[in-house]
Amino acid sequence: MSAEVPAEELDCLTCSACCRGHAGVIPVSASDLLRFERAGRPELALRIVPGHFGDEAMETDERGACVHLGRPGLPHHCSIYDVRPDICGEFERGSWQCHEARRFDARTRGA
Ligand code: SF4
Ligand code: SF4
Questions:
Q1: pTM metric for this prediction
Q2: Helices within 1-111 (DSSP H only)
């Protein structure tokens, strides 16, 4: 089990555990879809899949990682950061959900 690092010591740009691990758990809301449209990125609405609890969710790859995770040479960066779903911006570094994501990531990577 990984030790819980204090929030101020966590670096999201070398982590991205909350963007990986499970399919269907990164919800996309109607306001997110509107943001994509207004930003001139309507194609992002094509990368939506049925999510949990009847929501729509970000498409994930075979590892359960969001399809928008990673930029060239920057595997932990969000490639649609400026228009990312509200839930991504609201996810709190150092929260119990953050630590759970990091624990799950460590387990699945065999760390
Ligand atoms: S919020 Fe937590 S799990 Fe997500 S990238 Fe930052 S440190 Fe990692
Ligand atoms: S949209 Fe960006 S921040 Fe949100 S889960 Fe995907 S890669 Fe992570």
A1: 0.91
A2: 30-38, 86-90, 96-108
